[in-house]
Structure formats: C-alpha cells, structure tokens
Amino acid sequence: LLRFAPARRLLSPIGVAGMGGLFVFGVLYLYLCVTYAIHQREYQYTLGGTRSTPETAAAAGFTEVKIATADGERLDGWWRPPPATERGVVLFLHGTPGTVPDQVWRLDQLKHSGLGILAIDWRGYGGSTGNPTELGLRADARAGFDFIRAAAPQSKIAVFGESLGTGPAVALARDRPVAGVLLNAPYASVRRLFELRGLPIPYRWLMKDPFDSEALIGGVTAPLLILHGTDDPAIPVGEAHRLYDAAHEPKMIFIADGAGHLDAWEGGGERLALEALARWTTPAELAR
User: Fold this and answer.
1) What is residue 11's predicted lDDT score, i.e. its pLDDT?
2) pLDDT for residue 49
3) Per-residue pLDDT tens for 48-77?
C-alpha cells in the first residue's frame, strides 16, 4: 500500500501577520523596559536649577553653608540659627524640580514659626555635588540633621518635607531623633505613582529608587502632621491617607478641599503646621 505523508498546515496570512505583530510588540515593550531601566533617574529627578550664592542667601535672611555628607558629597544649605538657645530648628527638605533659592517664599513663611531653619539642596541640585539616588537623599537629610545638631546642640529638631522631600523626611525620622515630622503633599510610594500614571512596565522589578514611605513610617515614633490637597494633580490625596493609616499615633492629617500640589499650606494648613513645629520643638520645661 502506498503511504502518503500528512499535508503540512500552512499559516494563513492573518496568522503570519498576528505573529509578526506580537513579535514587534514584544520588541517595543522590551525597548521601553530597557530605556526606562537605563534612564529612570532622569525621569525621577530634575538636576541643576538655580545655584545658591552667599548674596542670595543673605538677601533672604540666611547664611549660605556647605555641608559634608558621610559619603563625601558637599551640599549647599541656607542656615538661619534659632533666635535663642532654647528655641528649636526646622530642617526643610524641598521637592523637585527646584532648589533652595527657589523656595524663598516658603522659607519666609517658616520664619513666622520663630524657629531656626536649615534648608538644603539635594545632591546634584543647584551647586550640590553628586547624583541623586534614594539612599543618597537619605544621606543628605542625615547630614542636614547632623549639621543642626552641631550648630545648635541644645535645640530640638523637626523635619519638614515637601513632595519628593517627604520620603527622605520619613526615613530621617527613623534614623535620627527628630522632634516631629511635617509632610506636605507626601506620597506613600513613588513606585506606586509610576504604576498608576506611568507606562505599563514592571516597575517593581526595574525601579531602583521606590521611596516606599508607607513601609518605613511604621517605625517612626515622632509626632506626625500631614497636609494634602484633594485636587493635587501630581500626587493623589489617597497617597496621604495611605501614609496616615500606616503611621503610629500621635498623628494628624489636614486635607484642604480643592487645593492643588503643595497648596494645602495656603489652604488652611499653615497655622496648623507652624503651631505643630513650635509645639514639637519647645523644651519640656518651657511647655509646662
């Protein structure tokens, strides 16, 4: 008997086109992942910006200082000592983009607290040396705290972080004995912000600097005040609620209806913030 080999099934034009489309999609997706992995810190941080000078600092009522970090970087800082030895100091950690000279308006508002102030520029921002990373920014915050402790050893120190600066502020509260933590427009996790609003790629595996404040804040024992606006286009107000829920008492959250990014301060949070900073940093013997 004759035996015939079974006929081979040929792919239809539609099947070939489908497989080709999947291949192209896979290549493009891989390209997106690799591009993000290589350039992610360019998307996360805004380097450069207005550089500090002694003249601009003096015009704002501050003294320009240079602060050395534990890993060898030098940070620009603006220092305003407390008006009396028993008064506290606020360490101000700004967001991105921007540098300390761009924060004069906020620093002027902080002066109403009657406390000393140190504002620092992150590594890679303004005239500060180095390149920003999550661990680097945490080291910068510790360097700022240590500078204050050396310059005003009798003062209690509160930390005030805005936007990007809220993550290092939370980490600092675990690393150093801060008197209180003030957060304006905080995120619970930068990685989740990218997952919510970025391209659909696996940030969990790719992101080097996730800034998971939600995971860290449970180890903070200092009092906490969170400010946020309901209409923040950069960081959803739900992030503030997540962070608040993960924190220990004593804690307080103020939500400004209709306020945008960082605008909860002007939307009613300023009084609460200044009162909290003064209360946290008042020596026990004077608070009685």
Assistant:
1) 54
2) 86
3) 889 999 999 999 999 999 999 999 999 999
β pairing state of 116-120 and 89-93: parallel
Give how far Cα 271 sits from Cα of 27, 121, 225, 227, Å. Answer: 54, 26, 12, 11
pTM of the full structure = 0.91
Distance CA 185, CA 164 (A): 9
Report angle CA 215, 217, 222 to the nearest 5 degrees.
165
Q: Kindly state the tokens that stand for 119.
A: 């504002």
Q: Residue 117: its pLDDT value, please?
A: 98
pLDDT digits (tens, 9 = 90+) for 188-217: 999 999 999 888 999 999 999 999 999 999
Which residues, in sequence order, are CB contacts of 188 under 8 Å at separation 6+? 212, 213, 214, 239, 240, 242, 243, 246
Q: Give the position of tokens 């034009």.
A: 13
Q: Which amino acid is at 220?
A: V
Give the pairing type, strands 89-93 and 157-162: parallel
Looking up tokens 């180890």 gives 219
User: Nearest to residue 81, comparing CAs of 73, 91, 89?
Assistant: 89
* Rounded Cα distance, 81 and 117, in Å: 6
